[in-house]
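Please decode residue identities from the backbone states below.
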């Protein structure tokens, strides 16, 4: 893994699109099915990440001002959570 990459693990039952933004600029996007992992480029600093339902496009989770290099999306009691 390179310094400016983010690893996304999809631990939920739906296809999920991850979008990484720096400010208002879209840096990267990737789509992962249930149980899949994808690696996406990100900037060297903090970024905002949004997770959307791959079928409907509805936002299901987000993390603002993140520096994480590994993100896992899971579901607990009906709520989507980023670990």
């Amino acid at each position: 893994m390179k310094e400016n990459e983010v690893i996304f693990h999809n631990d939920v039952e739906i296809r999920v699109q991850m979008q990484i933004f720096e400010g208002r600029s879209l840096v990267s996007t990737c789509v992962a099915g249930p149980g899949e992992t994808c690696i996406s480029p990100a900037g060297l600093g903090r970024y905002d990440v949004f997770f959307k339902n791959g079928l409907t496009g509805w936002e299901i989770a987000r993390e603002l001002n993140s520096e994480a290099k590994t993100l896992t999306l899971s579901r607990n009691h009906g709520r989507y959570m980023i670990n």
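Observation: The mean pLDDT is 94.
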